[in-house]
Q: What sequence folds into this?
């Protein structure tokens, strides 16, 4: 349905994806690293710039489209998935990214996130999780930990936080991953994997809001602690973490997972990760600091017919059966009479 | 019924007949009795007979209300005639009641000496009790003195007629509505062929049920001819209608087809997003059936998603359309604001129903006009159109889509429950004669600016993803004039606010000169909008026959209003605005033109009643205030703070204000009392 042939001949570079607008995030905000990484990854997708659309909701992260030299749509709070769904309905061939935050996607927009995932709309969702409301200046968010003291929760938040990865798995997403703003190579890998997936992809990106929630993921980004808290998930390999002299893995007993020292159990008893297994992904998604190391990487990558593909199939079937619609013939359907 | 006795009976019947000009028939029964199907089919037969007609389906909000109860009664009314028919009719000539509850609810609407056909088999002890009767009201002698009562054991007769089919009694009795249709078809000399065709297409795959219904139809017809109960039948000569091919169409169907036609004419695909809501769901059902037209329907997770998806589709170059009813429109407010800001095409259909809140889901009302105008944050103008008859829904849906694409603006189309479910004969339009759907699709990166405007329409270019070199960003933040970059400068915001307003105003250029029906100048100008068209037209005819100088303007463009409206208003002494709300258009007209327009307002969930309307016109023509029946004050007799006085907005304080406003009192008071 593209109205013009692609004009792109030279290979694109990162600079081709930088718009002329100055970013307006706070200095030091994790969003900068994410923007830069996304711009860097874009040329590798092999998609012409004009075929790419960034859609966002409202919040700090949702300014993202303004800084991308692609098509962009900064919509309303929580509703970005609905716009993305409609766009894919009209234009299945476009590559659509959705940028959202924890408040945008899991509070006001929780319903839409659920539905875009279960419908498997072919949209790549980058969920910047900073566990705080930044743009409205520091209220607790749906991913803030219980007891969080903020301007709107002076005695500590009583709300139990939601885990975006678990939410996505519950919504029957076909691709779910997590990465961290400070781990650029990992982020690159995850973004490329997500872009390749045919269907909806949810990528949770731990993002530091240095103004209102600085150090929320310090345990995962600081050199001193990272080695014990980071669990890099690799498909087909045993899940292992810890310093080289104290590597640990996991053994699943019943529905419980036990941390074991490598060598303390036979190697074949270790949990070897299978990213096509939604049940395993569900177990892994519950690993969290401080009881468990925090998994980053691809939790799930499975194939299921996606929304726009199924819709196009039905449309073609209908045309094959009834012919391309004819308005005049439609008018004459049923009972008519002449005067 | 004006009757003339004509001697020679047609072949079909050996009995004598009367010729009548108009007739009103109402089928009433339990929700499960199939009254809607029966009524609709009688309407089709009537259309085939060449009459003009208007219908009113009325059904409960409950899907299967408990059988036999008063609130489970469903009815279908039709007025047809050899002359122009404007409304479904107030009082009925023939009332068919299938049970005691229907009898109780509907008898008050039967004309004196009207025909009452009663299914006596349903007058059982338990059904009588459910309708609140101790004993059968049919034995009451005064009933027989007031009406022509035909007691027909419908269930038994249907059972007997279907004895050969081998159907169980219960199943056989299901066809009693079709038996009744046979009777009424005989009574008005309607052709049965269209009903046979319908039954064949509906039950083609269930031969036993098809046979049962065909038998019941013929049996009903034969019974009416044979029984001594009916000594005569009625004929209604064909009306003089424009030549052409006709079909019956409901408002929702016409809306769907108008949108399809517009999408076709634009060459753009259409995306229709909706969340199920009464009475708009039929739009979704209809369009979902037309995938081969490349209409992509989306049943969203909620009302907000439905509009979000359609705006997303419009951003992608499709015609985005969403349909809803009042409560859904309330939820769409924020997204509508975004559509105004990003200036993309979008058609939002609101099939209005009784409100506020859940209100009266299956009843009609015109109470979302102010919501359409003002139900959003910020200065948020959009185009508002309103069809006036079921078939006009086709024209106005096409127009809504055309304007929306041409001006890159959301258009709100206000239909209502009465238009949506009502049907009328529709002369098939000449597709080639429809206006082309024009738009400015940007392709040139050298000259492209996201918010550069067309000098005539002020529309910005439609720059759709996939076009190389036009990569740009839009959003809900204020835009810089021309470049479209985010901008917070005071003067720019002021300018952009005015530009958005002016763009909507330019749509005035699309509106043809106002056609005043009736007198072109005179005592009263009646201004209406939407589904009150028929009732007002009929009232105007009656008032003019009574010697009043009355004109009628029925607005289909509400925002912007036609440029020549004030000129027309100036030709009349007074302005009356009848609406099925508490005075919304009248408020807008007063505010826009500073005129003392008078409102006539009823919110009964039903179309306006003709006699009341005629009386209102006469009263206003005399320069008197409309008599006030302040039911709110009455309900709290003792004056608990309810301000009595003129609830129609014509009270003393307002009169004084208007007289001040106008300096002197034109022609004796412009709707204000001279008391
Ligand atoms: S408030 Fe926090 S999230 Fe928002 S821009 Fe500033 S640092 Fe980044």
A:
């Amino acid at each position: 349905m593209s109205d013009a042939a692609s004009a792109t001949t030279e290979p694109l570079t990162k600079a081709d994806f930088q718009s002329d607008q100055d970013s307006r995030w706070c200095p030091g905000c994790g969003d900068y690293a994410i923007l830069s990484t996304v711009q860097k990854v874009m040329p590798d997708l092999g998609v012409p710039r004009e075929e790419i659309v960034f859609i966002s909701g409202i919040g700090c992260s949702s300014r993202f489209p303004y800084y991308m030299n692609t098509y962009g749509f900064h919509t309303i709070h929580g509703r970005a998935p609905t716009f993305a769904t409609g766009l894919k309905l009209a234009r299945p061939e476009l590559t659509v990214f959705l940028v959202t935050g924890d408040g945008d996607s899991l509070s006001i927009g929780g319903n839409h996130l659920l539905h875009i995932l279960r419908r498997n709309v072919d949209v790549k969702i980058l969920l910047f999780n900073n566990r705080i409301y930044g743009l409205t200046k520091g209220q607790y968010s749906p991913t803030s930990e219980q007891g969080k003291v903020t301007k709107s929760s002076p005695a500590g938040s009583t709300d139990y936080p939601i885990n975006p990865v678990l939410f996505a798995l519950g919504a029957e997403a076909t691709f779910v991953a997590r990465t961290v703003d400070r781990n650029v190579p990992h982020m690159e890998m995850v973004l490329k994997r997500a872009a390749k997936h045919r269907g909806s992809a949810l990528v949770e990106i731990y993002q530091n809001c240095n103004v209102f929630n600085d150090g929320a993921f310090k345990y995962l980004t600081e050199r001193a602690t990272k080695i014990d808290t980071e669990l890099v998930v690799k498909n087909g390999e045993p899940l292992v973490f810890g310093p080289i002299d104290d590597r640990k893995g996991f053994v699943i007993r019943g529905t419980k997972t036990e941390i074991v020292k490598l060598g303390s159990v036979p190697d074949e008893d270790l949990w070897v990760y299978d990213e096509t297994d939604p049940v395993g992904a569900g177990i892994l998604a519950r690993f969290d600091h401080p009881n468990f190391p925090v998994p980053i990487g691809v939790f799930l990558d499975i194939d299921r017919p996606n929304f726009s593909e199924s819709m196009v199939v039905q449309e073609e079937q209908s045309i094959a059966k009834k012919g391309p619609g004819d308005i005049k013939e439609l008018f004459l359907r049923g009972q008519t009479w002449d005067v | 019924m004006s009757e003339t006795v004509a001697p020679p009976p047609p072949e079909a019947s050996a009995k004598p007949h009367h010729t009548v000009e108009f007739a009103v028939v109402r089928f009433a029964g339990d929700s499960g009795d199939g009254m809607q199907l029966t009524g609709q089919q009688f309407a089709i037969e009537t259309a085939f007979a060449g009459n003009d007609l208007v219908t009113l389906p009325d059904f409960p909000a409950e899907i299967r209300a408990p059988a036999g109860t008063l609130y489970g009664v469903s009815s279908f009314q039709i007025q047809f005639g050899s002359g122009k028919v404007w409304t479904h009719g107030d009082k009925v000539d023939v009332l068919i009641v299938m049970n005691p509850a229907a009898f109780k609810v509907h008898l008050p609407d039967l004309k004196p000496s009207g025909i009452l056909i009663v299914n006596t088999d349903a007058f059982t002890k338990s059904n009588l009790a459910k309708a609140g009767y101790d004993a059968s009201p049919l034995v009451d002698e005064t009933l027989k003195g007031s009406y022509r009562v035909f007691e027909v054991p419908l269930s038994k007769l249907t059972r007997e007629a279907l004895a050969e089919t081998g159907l169980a009694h219960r199943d056989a009795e299901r066809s009693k509505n079709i038996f009744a249709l046979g009777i009424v078809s005989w009574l008005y000399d309607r052709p049965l062929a269209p009903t046979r065709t319908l039954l064949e297409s509906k039950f083609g795959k269930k031969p036993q049920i098809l046979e049962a219904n065909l038998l019941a139809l013929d049996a009903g017809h034969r019974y009416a001819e044979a029984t001594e109960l009916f000594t005569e039948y009625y004929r209604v000569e064909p009306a003089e209608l424009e030549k052409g091919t006709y079909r019956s169409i409901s408002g929702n169907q016409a809306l769907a087809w108008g949108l399809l036609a517009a999408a076709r004419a634009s060459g753009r695909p259409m995306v229709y997003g909706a969340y199920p809501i009464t009475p708009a769901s039929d739009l979704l059902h209809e369009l979902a059936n037309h995938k081969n037209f490349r209409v992509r329907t989306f049943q969203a997770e909620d009302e907000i998603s439905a509009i979000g998806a359609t705006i997303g589709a419009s951003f992608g170059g499709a015609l985005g359309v969403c349909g809803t009813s009042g409560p859904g429109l309330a939820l769409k407010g924020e997204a509508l604001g975004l559509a105004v800001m990003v200036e993309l095409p979008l058609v939002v259909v609101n099939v209005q129903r009784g409100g506020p809140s859940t209100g009266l889901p299956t009843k009609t009302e015109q109470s979302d006009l102010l919501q359409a105008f003002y139900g959003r944050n910020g200065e948020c103008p959009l185009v508002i159109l309103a069809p006036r008859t079921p078939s006009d829904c086709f024209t106005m849906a096409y127009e809504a889509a055309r304007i929306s694409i041409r001006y890159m603006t959301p258009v709100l189309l206000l239909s209502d429950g009465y238009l949506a479910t009502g049907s009328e004969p529709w002369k098939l339009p000449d597709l080639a004669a429809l206006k082309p759907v024009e738009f400015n699709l940007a392709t040139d990166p050298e000259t492209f600016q996201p918010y550069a405007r067309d000098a005539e329409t002020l529309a910005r270019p439609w720059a759709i993803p996939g076009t190389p070199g036009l990569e740009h960003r839009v959003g809900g933040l204020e835009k810089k004039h021309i470049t479209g970059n985010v901008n917070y400068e005071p003067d720019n915001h002021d300018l952009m606010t005015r530009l958005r307003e002016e763009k909507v105003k330019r749509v005035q250029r699309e509106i043809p000169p106002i056609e005043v029906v009736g007198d072109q100048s005179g005592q009263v100008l009646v201004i209406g909008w939407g589904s009150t068209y028929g009732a007002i037209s009929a009232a105007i005819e009656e008032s003019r026959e009574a010697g009043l100088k009355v004109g009628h303007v029925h607005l289909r463009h509400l925002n912007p209003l036609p440029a020549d409206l004030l000129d027309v208003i100036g030709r009349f002494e007074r302005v009356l605005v009848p609406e099925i709300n508490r005075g919304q258009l009248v408020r807008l007209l007063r505010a826009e033109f500073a005129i003392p327009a008078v409102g006539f307002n009823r919110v009964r969930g039903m179309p306006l009643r003709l006699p009341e309307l005629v009386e209102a016109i006469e009263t206003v023509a005399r320069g008197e205030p409309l008599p006030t029946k302040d039911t709110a004050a009455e309900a709290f007799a003792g004056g608990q703070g309810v301000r009595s006085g003129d609830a129609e907005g014509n009270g003393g304080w307002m009169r004084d204000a208007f007289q001040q406003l106008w300096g002197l009192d034109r022609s004796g008071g412009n709707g204000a009392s001279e008391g």
